[in-house]
Fold:
Amino acid sequence: MATTTELGFSDLPRLVARMTGDEKHSVAATSTMDVLWVLYDRVLNISPRNVSHPRRDRFLLSKGHGPMAYYAVLTAKGFLGEHELAGWSSVNSRLGHHPDRVRVPGVEIGSGSLGHGLALGVGTVLGLRAQRLRKPRVVVLLGDAELDEGSNHEAIAVAARADLDQLTAVVIDNSSSTHGWPGGIARRFEVERWETRTVDGRDHEALFSAFTEPHPGRPLCVVAVVEPKE
Structure:
């Protein structure tokens, strides 16, 4: 595990730029940068010092096909050494095009095949409750296009009916969904009795408030709206 000094948000573009090569999914990465930073810098109880502690919060990157911003944030927060970024996705690197929970410190799930993260988040909360751990938060980051996958809708329904208020789904809305939902993304969660908040996905204060204001007895969905995918 890295022991470098923590860096700031302004360092993230430089860190992402160190990851060169094909198949970068750069839009998928940059669309998540502000959300990831606010979560790791101000919201979640996750650090290199408690990465294995049972009472830590959990972050699940369901939108795993664009992990460069994720790796950059993990580097800025001391989970990874900056020197690792330049060799990412090479045969000798542990930083793949999809994050690997076995190889990368701080990564909770292997992801990249879209549509699985929210169901894993539901299972993670249920597992914590089986251990009588009611305080750790479980945050799942999804892309709006992932909601085209049917597995998400089963997870949305189960989470509300089980009153999983430890669970937060943050959906990056860059207008890339093929089908969309009547009334918008937030409405899809509202009909299942989730608490929903739609904010500017580049506004750090708005994101912080959305993540931290209470929502007792109900799972939370934060829709983070960013510029449309071109």
User: Anything to note?
Assistant: The domain at 9-225 is CATH 3.40.50.970 (Rossmann fold). The two ends are 37 Å apart (CA to CA).
